[in-house]
Design goal:
This protein has six helices and six strands; from the N terminus they run H-H-H-H-H-H-E-E-E-E-E-E. The strands form two sheets. Strands 1-4-5 form a three-stranded antiparallel β-sheet. Strands 2-6-3 form a three-stranded mixed β-sheet, with no helix packed on it. The protein is α+β, with helices and mostly antiparallel strands. Among the domains are: 67 residues, no CATH class; 57 residues, Head domain of nucleotide exchange factor GrpE (Nucleotide Exchange Factor Grpe, Chain A, domain 2). It is elongated and about 95 Å long. A hairpin with a 2-residue loop joins strand 4 and strand 5.
């Protein structure tokens, strides 16, 4: 009867706990590491060849990494030099149009035709810049914003509702892909 009291019943819960305890014990076991004396004892004639092989591998890996660094640096320089290629290719037709306009100005008798041609070239130029992400700022009669505008001067506002607003634009500001690349130079109402 006493044996029955000491014996714990095997239940699924107890089996699971036993397995978990074994896993924890196995995970906590510290593997035996060799002492420096043991390592020295193992390094003999055959191992010097292995050490030489590992050293050779290390040197090859180091030189391979050095070549990688040089190659990526060279590629970055080439990319920076050619980054504007697409932009300039888009501008070449506009330059061709300007050259044709310059030739025709010398022989033109109708000034209105020349003006119209220059306007067409200007519109083509602006359209090309817009396609590359350049957008002009709209500043007239907007609130002055120091993050977008550079105040050249303050003048008395002609009306009460124009105080703190941009009255005149001296130099247009521009965004490139949504970021300011040139602040607008403006006159602000006081």
């Amino acid at each position: 009867m006493e044996e029955q009291n000491n014996k714990v019943e095997e239940t699924p819960h107890n089996n699971e706990q036993t397995v978990n305890n074994q896993i924890v014990e196995e995970a906590c076991e510290v593997p035996h590491t060799e002492t420096p004396d043991e390592v020295k004892a193992e390094v003999k004639g055959d191992d010097t060849a292995k050490i030489a092989e590992l050293n050779d591998r290390y040197l090859r890996l180091y030189s391979e990494f050095d070549n990688y660094k040089k190659r990526t640096a060279r590629e970055r320089v080439e990319f920076a030099q050619m980054a504007g290629k697409e932009f300039f290719l888009a501008l070449l037709p506009v330059i061709d149009d300007f050259e044709r306009a310059k030739k025709s100005i010398d022989t033109a008798t109708d000034i209105n035709a020349v003006k119209e041609g220059v306007d067409l070239i200007y519109n083509k130029f602006i359209k090309t810049l817009n396609s590359k992400g350049l957008e002009p700022m709209q500043t007239k009669e907007s609130l002055f914003d120091a993050d977008l505008h550079e105040a050249i001067t303050n003048i008395p506002a002609p009306a009460e509702d124009l105080k703190g607003k941009v009255l005149d634009e001296v130099e247009k500001g521009y965004y490139l892909n949504g970021k300011v690349i040139r602040f607008a130079k403006v006159v602000v109402g006081n």
